C-alpha cells in the first residue's frame, strides 16, 4: 500500500505544470547598425501578477547611444525615461480602467540605439540590466524576474567597392568605384498601440549581425553613489501626484474668480 501511495505522489510531481519563469529581455537580443545609423530594440516583460517596474540599462557610450524611447502607452499609461551618458532609466506602470495586475507577455516599449563609433574595426557593447532594475506588483512588492542582457554591435565602416562597369570610347571596359554609403539597419517601428499579449516575433525582426568580431567593450561600472542619484520609481509617482493636485487647485481658483 505504501509503495502505491509513493508511486502516485511521484507521478503527480512529474506531471505537475512547471511555473513560468518571469523574464525581462531585449528583442532582438543581438542588434547592430552601421556608423551614424540606428536600430530599434524592443524591451519585453513576461511575468505573472505585476503592475509595473523600473529598468536601469547600461552600455559603453563610446560605442552606442540611446537616442529615443517609445513606451507602450496602451498597457502602461504611466512611465518616464531619463537618459545619461551610457545609461538609461525607464519606469512604467499600468492603471485603470484595465486590471492593475497583469500576467503574460508584454512589450514595455522600444529603444532607438545609435551607432556612434567611427572605428574601422567596429565595436560591440553589452546592453546590461543592473540594480536597481526591478518589477513590482500592485502593492509595491518586488516580483522576482530574470534579466537577460543583450548585445549591440556598431559595424565597421564600409570600404570603397565596385558598383558599375561602363565601356569607354575605345571599347575598353572602365570600372567606376565610389565609397559605399552607410545604410540604416533599423527594423520597422514596433506597434506600441497594439493589443496585449503580442509575441516578440510579431513585433520586430532581428537585425543582421556582422560576421566580423569587433572588440568588445565592457558595460560601464556604476558606483552605489551614482545609483542613488537616479530618480526612484516611487519618486516618479509622487511627482505625478503633486502635479495633479497643483492642477486641481489652480483650476478651482480660476472658477472662484
Architecture overview:
The radius of gyration is 25 Å and the shape is elongated. The termini are far apart. 30% of the residues are buried. Strands 2, 4, 6, 7, 9, 10, 11 and 13 form an eight-stranded mixed beta sheet that branches. A five-stranded mixed beta sheet has the order 5-8-3-1-12, with no helix packed on it. Helix content is 17%, strand content 39%. The chain has a single domain, classed as Immunoglobulin-like (Sandwich). With 257 residues, it is of the alpha+beta class.
Which characteristics define this entry?
257 residues; alpha+beta; Immunoglobulin-like; eight-stranded mixed sheet; five-stranded mixed sheet; 3 helices; 17% helix; 39% strand; elongated
Q: Brief description of this entry?
A:
This protein is an alpha+beta fold and 257 residues long. 17% of the residues lie in helices and 39% in strands. The protein is elongated and about 50 Å long.
Topology:
Blueprint: H1 2-15, E1 23-27, E2 30-33, E3 38-50, E4 52-58, E5 64-71, E6 78-84, E7 87-93, E8 102-115, E9 123-129, E10 134-136, E11 142-143, E12 146-147, E13 150-154, E14 160-167, E15 173-179, H2 224-228, H3 233-256
Parallel strand pairs: 1-12, 2-13
Antiparallel strand pairs: 1-3, 3-8, 4-7, 4-9, 4-10, 5-8, 6-7, 9-13, 10-11, 14-15
Amino acid at each position: 500500500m505504501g509503495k502505491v501511495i509513493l508511486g502516485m505522489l511521484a507521478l503527480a510531481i512529474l506531471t505537475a505544470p512547471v511555473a513560468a519563469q518571469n523574464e525581462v529581455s531585449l528583442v532582438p537580443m543581438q542588434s547592430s547598425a552601421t556608423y551614424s545609423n540606428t536600430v530599434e530594440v524592443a524591451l519585453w516583460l513576461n511575468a505573472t501578477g505585476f503592475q509595473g517596474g523600473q529598468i536601469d540599462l547600461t552600455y559603453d557610450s563610446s560605442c552606442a547611444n540611446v537616442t529615443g524611447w517609445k513606451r507602450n502607452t496602451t498597457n502602461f499609461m504611466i512611465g518616464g525615461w531619463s537618459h545619461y551618458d551610457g545609461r538609461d532609466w525607464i519606469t512604467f506602470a499600468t492603471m485603470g480602467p484595465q486590471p492593475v495586475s497583469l500576467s503574460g507577455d508584454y512589450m514595455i516599449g522600444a529603444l532607438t540605439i545609435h551607432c556612434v563609433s567611427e572605428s574601422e574595426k567596429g565595436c560591440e557593447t553589452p546592453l546590461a540590466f543592473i540594480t536597481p532594475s526591478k518589477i513590482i506588483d500592485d502593492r509595491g512588492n518586488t516580483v522576482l524576474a530574470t534579466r537577460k542582457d543583450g548585445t549591440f554591435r556598431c559595424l565597421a565602416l564600409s570600404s570603397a567597392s565596385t558598383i558599375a562597369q561602363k565601356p569607354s570610347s575605345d571599347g575598353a571596359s572602365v570600372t567606376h568605384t565610389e565609397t559605399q554609403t552607410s545604410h540604416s539597419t533599423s527594423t520597422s517601428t514596433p506597434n506600441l498601440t497594439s493589443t496585449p499579449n503580442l509575441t516578440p516575433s510579431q513585433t520586430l525582426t532581428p537585425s543582421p549581425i556582422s560576421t566580423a568580431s569587433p572588440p568588445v567593450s565592457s558595460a560601464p561600472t556604476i558606483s552605489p553613489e551614482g545609483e542613488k542619484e537616479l530618480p526612484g520609481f516611487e519618486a516618479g509617482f509622487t511627482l505625478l501626484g503633486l502635479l495633479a493636485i497643483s492642477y486641481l487647485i489652480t483650476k478651482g481658483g480660476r472658477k472662484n474668480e
